[in-house]
C-alpha cells in the first residue's frame, strides 16, 4: 500500500474536509483518507495499482485546487504495528 500527502487549497472548515473525504473515499482502492483545512492537506492511503490521478481529478472536480502529491510506502502506525514491526 502507498500513502499520498496531497496539498489541497480551498478548504475552509470541517465541512470542506468532510466533502473532500467523501469524494475520495468513493474511489475504488482507497483504504483511508483524512483532510485538514488548517494544514491544507489530504492524506490518502491506497492500494498499489490505484491511479492517483483519479483521486486528484475527483478533488479538483469539487472545486478545490491540488498541488503535487508526495507519495511514499504506507507504514502502519499504532500499537500492533510497532509491536509486530508492520
Structural topology:
Layout: E1 2-9, H1 14-25, E2 30-36, E3 41-46, H2 52-60, E4 65-66, E5 70-73, H3 79-84
Antiparallel strand pairs: 1-3, 1-4, 1-5, 2-3
Summarize the structure.
By secondary structure, the protein is an alpha+beta fold. It is built from three helices and five strands; from the N terminus they run βαββαββα. It is globular and about 30 Å long.
Structure in words:
- By secondary structure, the protein is of the alpha+beta class.
- 31% of the residues lie in helices and 31% in strands.
- It contains 3 helices and 5 strands, in the order βαββαββα.
- Strands 1, 2, 3, 4 and 5 form a 5-stranded antiparallel β-sheet that branches.
- The chain is globular, with a radius of gyration of 13 Å.
Jot down its keywords.
alpha+beta; globular; 86 residues; 5-stranded antiparallel sheet; 3 helices
Mean pLDDT: 91
Uncertain runs are: none
User: What is the N-to-C order of secondary-structure elements (H for helix, E for strand)?
Assistant: EHEEHEEH
Distance between the termini: 12 Å
Total strands: 5
Helix content: 25-40%
Number of helices: 3
Question: Which word captures the global form?
Answer: globular
Biggest sheet architecture: 5 strands, antiparallel
Radius of gyration: 13 Å
Query: What percentage of the residues does DSSP assign to strands (E)?
Result: 25-35%
Class derived from helix and strand content: alpha+beta
Amino acid at each position: 500500500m502507498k500513502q499520498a500527502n496531497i496539498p489541497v487549497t480551498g478548504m475552509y472548515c470541517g465541512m470542506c474536509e468532510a466533502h473532500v473525504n467523501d469524494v475520495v473515499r468513493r474511489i475504488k482502492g482507497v483504504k483511508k483518507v483524512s483532510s485538514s483545512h488548517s494544514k491544507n492537506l489530504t492524506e490518502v492511503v491506497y492500494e498499489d495499482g490505484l491511479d492517483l490521478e483519479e483521486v486528484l481529478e475527483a478533488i479538483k472536480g469539487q472545486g478545490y485546487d491540488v498541488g503535487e502529491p508526495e507519495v511514499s510506502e504506507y507504514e502502519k502506525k499504532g500499537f500492533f504495528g510497532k509491536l509486530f514491526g508492520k
